[in-house]
Amino acid sequence: MSRPRIDALADVRIAGPGAELLPGVEVYDIVLQNGRIADIAPAGSLRLAGAVHRGEGAYVIPGLWDHHVHVTQWALAALREPLGECVSAADAAARMGRVAPGVDGRRVGTGFRDALWPDAPSLEVLDAATGDTPTYLINADVHSVWLNSAALAREGLSADDGVLREGPAFDVSRRLNELPDQVADAAVTAMAAAASARGVVGVVDLDMVWNESSWQRRRAGGFDLLRVEFGIYPDLLDRAIAEGLRSGDPLRGDDGELVTVGPLKAITDGSLGTRTAACSVAYAEAPHPHGLLTIAPDDLRDVMTRATAAGLDCAIHAIGDDAMRHALDAYAAADAHGTIEHAQLVAAADIPRMARLGVTASVQPEHALDDRDLTDSIWVTQTARPYPLRSLWAAGVDLRFGSDAPVSALDPWAAIATAAFRTRDGREPWQPGETVPVGVALAASTHRGSADPDTIAVGQRADLALLAADPRTAEPAALRSMQVVGTVLDGRVTHRV
User: Fold this and answer.
1) Could you give the CA distance from residue 10 to residue 41 in angstroms, rounded to a whole number?
2) Which of 159, 233, 283, 429 would be 423's cystine partner, CB 3.0–4.6 Å?
3) Beta-carbon count within 10 A of 381 CB
């Protein structure tokens, strides 16, 4: 679907980064040309021509980005049984037993959190509830999958308790995502429309496949709802280097600039929910007391060195403080540039080191509240700092926000509200000393991040979100439920109320 560009936004208030550079006028007109901001002037002072979008006093901010999304898996989650409210393994198994099999004969559920369940997932419990229908339950953190005997047999795998963790779990998730292209692409388009309705103009896609071909197909089919930067995993690095892919390059075979090559994505440890995040201090009742390093430090340095030499940025998953330390060591040794993904537990000494190395913290604020009870129990003895957003920002680390969807919902307003207030659902703020100002949270939700945010200024991309209220003064609940009345991408309206 081709959406024509507009030529101007009329009668809008400017509330995002860049507003501080404008004169103290309440309402403005913004002239757009070739997908860029060509002029900004007090409302009514210019003669607007062409297609004019009337903002009617809406507040304008730069369009928002989600810097960490597993696009296909997030899109397909809408087709799967939600398990986030299950209170026990028996509850989750019983719920899956009532689910009708899909067109491929499998039952798939997603979003369970077993770390605080009173009972553990087991093969016996799941088999009793689900019988001979292959049944898969994907953990909310995506680092483990619970299968019944029929599913294990279908996959040619075995597990005493039915639970696969880390690499084997990722392999199963990839296979579950291999639905017909038309099914997956329709789900991605629906996901993108929902994201646009929240003011999102771009995502970093970190699906664990050769993402270039997926986006070539979608763009050929007319996809134009979001900008996309797609990641490359270490097992595909040789192919990427051989084919000359470099971060920032446009999608091959496409005549636009909506889709570009993103970073090398490497996963160095597990997760808090699966109790596999690599930590310097052991935590109790975990299958691996210090978690797991899923890439040896020397191998991580080597793969990052090769990627950097080939012109690829890096995006390194590191949740535990031990994984963080090794990731920063590798950044220093490889002279690489890029992000730490998650940074959920960071040693005090590594916070200023991250700033000195110029490594960006690509973080998911909603995880802090999703995991607050886990952190206060499973990580209670840790000496490193959990979810240290303000500490990172105060040290000069660039922040970029995301969701890790499907781990958390793809909603930047939830991330912004959590970062600024550290609470939801009426609970007391959790670790309120790690909040950041709303303006910083907004900046971290733009493409360029908190250190050098996208701005409303002449020459900048016409990627904009129009809001019903001023986010800078909104209360926490209002910020979380912010009404987006319009979204503009490359000068085209992709969402309007």
Assistant:
1) 10
2) 429
3) 10
The Cα 447–Cα 458 span in angstroms is 17
Amino acid at site 295 = I
- Give the max Cα distance, the chain: 73
Residues of the chain above pLDDT 70, percent: 99
* DSSP notation for 113-146: --TT-SS---HHHHHHHHTTS-EEEEETTSSEEE
CB burial of 23-62 (b: ≥16 within 10 Å; e: otherwise) equals eeeebbbbbbeebebeebeebeebebeeebbebeebbbbb
Written as six digits, the tokens of 487 are 């979204």
Place of tokens 């793969």: 303
Model pLDDT for residues 159-189, shown as the tens digit of each residue: 999 999 999 999 999 999 999 999 999 999 9
Per-residue confidence (pLDDT) for residue 410, from 0 to 100: 98
Q: Give the pair of three-digit tokens for residue 315.
A: 């995006």
DSSP β-ladder status, 259-267 and 144-147: unpaired
What are the helix and strand counts (H, E) for the chain? Answer: 17, 23
pLDDT per position as a tens digit, 232-257: 999 999 999 999 999 999 999 998 89
Give CA torsion, residues 227, 192, 455, 40, to 10 deg: 100
Round the CA-based radius of gyration of the chain to a whole number and report it.
23
